[in-house]
Design brief:
Blueprint: E1 2-5, E2 8-15, H1 18-28, E3 33-42, E4 49-57, E5 62-65, H2 74-80, E6 86-89, H3 93-101, E7 109-111, H4 112-118, H5 126-134, H6 154-162, H7 167-180, H8 184-195, H9 208-213, H10 216-236, H11 240-243, H12 246-254, H13 257-262, H14 276-287, H15 312-334, H16 336-342, H17 346-349, H18 362-375
Parallel strand pairs: 2-5, 3-6, 6-7
Antiparallel strand pairs: 1-2, 3-4, 4-5
Length: about 375
């Protein structure tokens, strides 16, 4: 198949057989670098985190791998697990997770989003990046399209290909630039951390806001409703929020009458209307609940400031001043975007704990410790 992509007439091959997977793996094993991306559903249309398409560009040809049709992806996974071959992607944390869920443990990842940030590039998205670097315009119309549905539209194939055809050219430029700017080691550390990200399964839980709002008894009741909803969502292959949203279940926990007044007619998905067995699961969980008033946090219950920061106002002024000084040095040395990226998240937690006790990147600790020593300040 030949479709016109953003950079001309690049051949796009739709890989749908195990034999084609082996051929692709044999082609990629001779490459030093290739670009990749994935199209998936993460509780958007369906239940779960599911891979529907894998895009690969080897510098010459674009391959769209169909994981729904191919029975054995292991030959391709062995290429992703080969440390001698660099795999380039943009903002690839979720891509790494979905590969791991599908039994692939990728190594030698190069995240172009992080590379751009550390090289002080102003782009806030992949579209911005290739627009600035190559004057290319991307059409995001099909970003949220149904990637499970087959056959794929020609426009979907072109869209999916456009997400990978620029990656090798970007890698060639930004690898050199990162080395010249002295941020390559930082980038390599970030890439290693990305490689080690865990595949996150869906866990039924209540949020910190819900914990603060409800008593222990109400939290148990809410969790019970969430578990029922999750069981039904799996059976229907629907995202849990499409069965019933959190806020309605919270209201029911606060007052059962809200449910008894409307039943399943208000706020619940239509699939439940004729599903007596699933409805009964909700009814049982609701009838077992104990009605309580919303939990009001008393003053004595509120989290006390650590002794280290007993004088919060004084500490806040000190943190603001020190962070401003450090940020100025970082931005002067690495540029505003790179400097702020290196310092990201640190100021937020300094009121709760000293910098020495924070879990940060090795390069962040080294750079910031050196700046603090030069400025004679303690975070």
């Amino acid at each position: 198949m030949h479709y016109k992509t953003s950079i001309g007439n690049i051949e796009i091959e739709f890989v749908q057989t195990d034999a084609a997977i082996i051929t692709l793996a044999n082609t990629l094993q001779n490459k030093k670098v290739f670009g990749f991306d994935t199209e998936f559903d993460r509780f958007w249309r369906e239940y779960g985190f599911k891979l529907f398409l894998l895009q690969i560009f080897d510098g010459e040809k674009c391959y769209l791998v169909d994981p729904l049709a191919c029975k054995n992806l292991q030959p391709l996974w062995s290429i992703f697990e080969n440390p001698a071959i660099c795999k380039v992607a943009y903002a690839c944390a979720e891509d790494v997770q979905i590969l791991k869920i599908n039994n692939c443990i990728p190594v030698n990842i190069f995240d172009m989003q992080v590379a751009a940030k550390l090289c002080n590039h102003e782009a806030n998205s992949f579209s911005d990046l290739i627009g600035t670097e190559f004057n290319a315009i991307t059409d995001k119309t099909y970003q949220r399209s149904n990637w499970r549905k087959r056959p794929l539209l020609e426009a979907q194939m072109i869209y999916a290909s456009n997400d990978v055809i620029w990656l090798i050219a970007l890698y060639n430029k930004f690898y050199v630039l990162a080395k010249e700017r002295g941020v390559l080691e930082m980038l390599e550390e970030e890439n290693r951390i990305c490689e080690n990200i865990e595949a996150s399964d869906y866990i039924v839980k209540i949020s910190s806001k819900q914990i603060a709002k409800f008593t222990a008894i109400q939290q148990t009741a809410l969790l019970s409703l969430f578990n029922v909803r999750n069981e039904i969502a799996q059976a229907y292959n629907m995202p849990p929020a499409n069965i019933v949203i959190d806020s309605l279940l919270e209201n029911i926990v606060e007052d059962k009458k809200i449910f008894y007044n409307y039943g399943f007619e208000k706020g619940f998905c239509r699939n439940l209307q004729e599903d007596e067995k699933s409805k009964q699961k909700f009814i049982n969980a609701i009838e077992e609940m104990v009605n309580c008033k919303p939990h009001v946090i008393e003053r004595s219950e509120r989290r006390k400031e650590p002794v280290f920061f007993a004088n919060k106002d004084k500490r806040k002024i000190e943190v603001e001043y020190n962070c401003k000084k450090i940020n100025e040095v970082l931005c002067d040395q690495y540029g505003i975007i790179a400097g702020e990226y290196i310092f990201r998240g640190i100021k937020k937690y300094l009121l709760a704990k000293p910098f020495a006790a924070m879990d940060v990147r090795d390069y962040q600790r080294k750079i910031i410790d050196e700046i603090c020593e030069d400025l004679e300040i303690v975070l």
